[in-house]
Design brief:
The chain is of the alpha/beta class and 140 residues long. It has four helices and six strands. It has a single domain, classed as 2-Layer Sandwich (Nucleotidyltransferase, domain 5), CATH 3.30.420.130. Helices cover 25% and strands 22% of the residues.
Length: 140
Amino acid sequence: MIFAFATDDNKNFINRHFGDAKFYQIYKITQNDYRQIVSIENTTEEEEQHADPKKAGGIVNLLQSKDVTCAVSRVFGPNIKRINKKFACIIASSKDIPTQIITLQQNFDQIQAAWHQGRIRKHVELLKLDKLKLTPFKII
């Protein structure tokens, strides 16, 4: 599956709505592996009104051009109703992207099931990691 992570610094999730990110880190993730595909700049227009459908459409087009199936952020705004029809929206449980990748892999079946529900899917909210022994790694 292809995941888009909402970020400003390419390492951590933003604390604003998904559509307000400066960048989207695009990753291909499976249960056992992951790799970064590309980082793309959010070139969508600013909202003319709160929950602007044009902004949601711009984000959908931007991410679909990279074959994204899942949108991941700590916060989604009211446009989650529109975005969720095109992607499995996942509310991140971690602040940093590397830790979240591990959580996504651990919950891969649940995420895949949400994706296969199609336009009627609901967002996925991941449980926070407790004390998990992680092997440190760098995002290149």
